[in-house]
Design brief:
With 95 residues, the protein is an all-alpha fold. It has four helices and no strands.
Length: 95
């Protein structure tokens, strides 16, 4: 049976990984066309792989929190690919 300290450390790493994943998705979005775009994209894709791995491991191990990893994965993908400002620009051209 793993010690309590090990379980706390694993939970902390899990939380940090997911927050970092969402942060890199936001950074990749904000740095589009900027000087740090390559760094943001590399960081995003690295975190995307880690979150996908965490989701698969959680699902295979029947952990109750694996859906949270899946939600984080979906939020990262949507944040990186959706064009949130496009509708506002299109509406502004018709006015």
């Amino acid at each position: 049976m793993p010690s309590t300290n090990l379980l706390l450390a694993l939970q902390a790493v899990w939380i940090v990984l997911h927050v970092l994943g969402l942060g890199t998705a936001w950074a990749a979005r904000m740095q589009a066309g900027g000087r740090r775009e390559l760094l943001a994209h590399v960081s995003f894709f690295a975190c995307l792989v880690l979150i996908a791995f965490a989701t698969i491991v959680g699902h295979v191990a029947c952990l109750a929190i694996w859906p949270l990893s899946a939600v984080t994965l979906v939020m990262m993908i949507v944040t990186a690919t959706a064009d949130f400002g496009h509708r506002q620009t299109a509406l502004a051209t018709f006015e």
